[in-house]
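Morning run. Coffee first, then this:
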Amino acid sequence: MKKAVISALIFCLLLPLLISGQTNTVAKLSKEKAGAIDQPAGKIAFIRDKNLWAMDWNGLNQFKVVTAENASGKLSWSPDGKSIAFCRYGLADLKGPDHLGGKHKVWDIFVGYLDSAIADTPNTNWWRRLTFDLGGRYPEWVRDDSKILFTKDLNANFLNALEPNYQACFMDSVGEDFKIIRADWQNSEKHMLMPTLGPDNKYAFVLVEGVTPAGIVISSLDIKSMTKESVSEMKFISKATAPAWSPDGQWIAYILTSKDDQGLYSTGPDLKEKYLVYRPGVGQTLQTFPLSWAPDSKWLTFALGDGSIWIIDVTGNNLRMVIGPGTNEAPAWSQH
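And here it is:
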């Protein structure tokens, strides 16, 4: 009798865990559906000690590209593999006449060049600035084109702005021909962060309503209004961030930030499928910089909160740490 009572108590204690485990179980992409997965190729850029670095995909031949000392955020390779777009941050410190004010970071987008870093006499103090009004973040070079998709805070250079107004924008590779995707961008209640371009004139971004990230939205570039009605008709992934559309257009990688489901996932453009790629272990966290695909759309690179950088294939196998823990962040795979 005593054993039966003990067994019943143990079962009652474990039942919530068992149920939780069942509800959070997500399948991995099958090898059959993923297709042949070859050896990785290309280079990976990353940030170390707030400077821009690059290396071979396997962590070898690491070299500094730009000595910035204030680089942070998403990186993106140019289609020709010769340069890398990155962000640098500064600090705005407002002390108003009535003693009100505050501090907040400001950002702009720059480009670093590999040929300067690997020349016979390396020069890591050479870069070009693309944005000048303190609001440019999350650059993504458009594949096979000279345009860059990015987030811009349209209120960043207004001293008395009460809140940011983050919108998805395009510019050319020299920082000109600037275009805001939304026509109703003055409505700053809905913000657009981390945009990533897909096929068929579509893009994905993190929707922030007020100050709260709601999740990832998939929209057509032709939709210029972000009304409540238009947003309700868009495809949506709740509590998700860091989206990255694969080069072949078949997959969107993202990170779920909820406590029970934290992990790296992939889905198709229709959001009908959801596959687990990587779930961090106990005591680990994922950096929530936008994810990055290998040029063949079969591999992903990401970083953990301890500064280690990893690669993994789309089926959730062949996990490999390419850089150990440190001050590393935001890895980005080259486009070829």
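The chain has one domain: 35-333. Good start to the day.
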